[in-house]
Amino acid sequence: MDVAERAVALLLDRPAATAGCPPGIDAAAFAQALAEDVADLISDLPGLDPAVACSPDRRADAAAGSWPTTLLVEVPPAAGALAVLEALAERGYGQGAVVAPDAPDLPALMVAKPFSGLATASVAAAPADGGGLVVLASRLPVPGWLAASGVDLDTAAAVQRLRAAAPGRRDLVITQGWRRLRDPGDIASLDPGLEGWEATRALLSGR
After folding, report:
1. Are 105 and 197 in contact (CB under 8 A)?
2. What is the fold, at CATH topology level, of the domain defined by 3-204?
3. Which of 62, 96, 149, 160 could bond 88 through an S-S bridge, CB–CB 3.0 to 4.6 Å?
4. How far apart are CA 43 and CA 34, in angstroms?
5. Residue 169 reports pLDDT greater than 70
6. In the structure, what pLDDT confidence band is assigned to residue 3 with cuts at 50, 70 and 90?
7. Helix or strand (DSSP H, E) at 201
8. Global pTM?
9. pLDDT (average), residues 141-166
């Protein structure tokens, strides 16, 4: 498959993903650090075009936290993962994935596995610890059943709803899950031994 046929997009929340910000840290700086780490991760994934999806008022944040070669995809305010996938389809991609902005230490394998799932299924997802999704991937254009499900990254019962909506077992692959930083207590789950998440690491260490 040609590189240009697959894209992975970081979805910048509106408002910014500040719910997991610990005391004593500037919330806006925290959200920006998380997004920068996810943007760095997807920029290094082989065979995938990196993108940042945002509403027009977050375009400056998107540009500041990503590489100059990263595709910026504008979506309506409060748009979710499905809108991002549809926007990628409009740009001619055959496969796309959306990654949550609050998973700074997400390993590259957690993004690669959903794309591997698309070899046999039309949709693949990586659940987030505690509910929701950390990655949602789909063949494009978005299958009708996925669009009808209304599932988003923050849908609490996302996996259950996807399974209920999928026409058959082979239409959906659920891969290994990962954590998102949605509560200040989630900071304790970060593993200092993992590579990456440099911006978040630096902010939390007070540098």
Report:
1. yes
2. Spore Coat Polysaccharide Biosynthesis Protein SpsA; Chain A (3.90.550)
3. 96
4. 14
5. yes
6. very low
7. helix 198-204
8. 0.94
9. 97
